[in-house]
Design brief:
With 159 residues, this protein is of the alpha+beta class. The chain has one domain. It is 16% helix and 33% strand. It contains three helices and ten strands. Strands 1, 2, 3, 4, 5, 6, 9 and 10 form an eight-stranded antiparallel β-sheet that branches. A hairpin with a 4-residue loop joins strand 7 and strand 8.
Length: 159
């Protein structure tokens, strides 16, 4: 089980996207899905997964995943759209908003709950492109703003 300190270190670790997830977009039912390869200075295993509904533009997830050596893929951070209610089971609060899931030691220790079951509402984005930019800013991909090369991975609608 990862500790909160280990999770924070993984999120902060310098990373770079090396493949454009849009180049591998594929249809899976009513969603499009793409996976981006990520390089980390430590050679740790990371990837970014993007899922977008073809029916509801507010139904999306942008996910930073990590695989410990010899382990299974874990979701460290997940940026979700405003398409469903979310309940933090341990806190008992419920909301209908764009929200960011974060892996926590506390939720992992409960067993049965996903590592990243805890979430907080946000107004930092309103679509999957904005969620992706937030993930890049929050999770060690560098660059202080939208002029950073990593942030151009999803072109604006009118480009």
């Amino acid at each position: 089980m990862l500790t909160d300190e280990q999770i924070a270190a993984l999120l902060a670790e310098p990373k770079r996207v090396v493949t454009d997830p849009l180049s591998s977009l594929r249809r899976k039912g009513a969603h499009l899905e793409a996976t981006a390869k990520v390089a980390a200075d430590s050679n740790a295993d990371f990837r970014v997964v993007v899922r977008v509904s073809t029916v509801n533009p507010h139904n999306f997830s942008v996910i930073l995943m990590h695989r410990p050596r010899g382990g299974v893929w874990l979701r460290l951070r997940r940026y979700n759209g405003r398409s469903h209610f979310h309940t933090n089971r341990l806190e008992g609060n419920r909301f209908y908003a764009y929200h960011i899931h974060t892996a926590t030691e506390r939720y992992a220790a409960t067993g049965g709950a996903d590592l990243e079951s805890y979430a907080e509402a946000t107004d930092r984005y309103a679509d999957y492109r904005g969620a992706y930019r937030c993930l890049l800013r929050d999770c060690g991909f560098g660059g202080p703003g939208p002029d950073d090369g990593q942030l151009s991975l999803f072109p604006e609608e009118d480009e």
